Amino acid sequence: MMENVATALILTTLAGLATGVGGLIAYFVPKPDMRYLSVSLGFATGVMIFIAFVDLFSEAREVLGNWHANIFFIAGLLTIFFLDKVVPHSHMNGQADPHCDRLYRGGIMLALGIAIHNLPEGAAVALVSMADLSLGIPIAIAIAIHNIPEGMAVSVPLYCATSDRKKASFYSFLAGMAQPLGAILAILILMPFLTDFVLNASIAFVAGIMVMICFDELIPIANSYGDEHLTNIGLISGILVMMIALALFH
């Protein structure tokens, strides 16, 4: 597990950089047909849900027992739920406001909200990667796919408000870099106390975080870009890919 710490930080950083990539895409494709994001986000959802329930939660339950695993899983769900209530944030619906009125303040607040939401996502990637790198890699990819439209959501309003591509891109980048920060905080806080119980409690907690992210963010956002049929195609594909991948790894 200790050998995976550096790799976990690299994976989390790469996932966070996808937010900045989303910001760049928004400049070069002013009015993109983003229905393909329905499939991509559906795929990310399938990957994360399958891993959360089939692998992470099942593994934690074997070590902790049903009651403890359920408690930490629910704690993960509630953490994202309350975080979303305290710091709400929204995503693009595929088009920027054509009038671009009073968008600068809204863009800054949106960047801040996404950054705060990225902290537990970074912690999730790091903790899973430390426990099992073969699971950390697909989760990092799924989070990275999810981060691309978030980068667009930050950059397009700021670019409309300021006509400054560099500034808009910079704020998108900063919002994404909250993910490696979340990974670093998770490692620093948990590493000194990491026993089998703490590790598996963290895994159950992370599983709850991942499931709530899927239901609260990925599925609604994916449907807003296209429709539920495109989302479901991606979701089923993600589950099938992870079924095959986990069967090969195990």
From TrEMBL:
Organism, scientific name: Candidatus Methanocrinis natronophilus
Keyword list, A-Z: Membrane, Transmembrane, Transmembrane helix
Principal subcellular localization: membrane
Annotated protein name in UniProt: Zinc transporter ZupT
Membrane topology reported for the UniProt record: Multi-pass membrane protein
Transmembrane feature ranges: 6-29, 36-58, 64-83, 103-119, 125-148, 169-191, 197-218, 230-249
InterPro entries linked: ZIP
PANTHER family linked: ZINC TRANSPORTER ZUPT, ZINC/IRON TRANSPORTER
Magnesium as UniProt keyword: no
Annotated compartments: Membrane
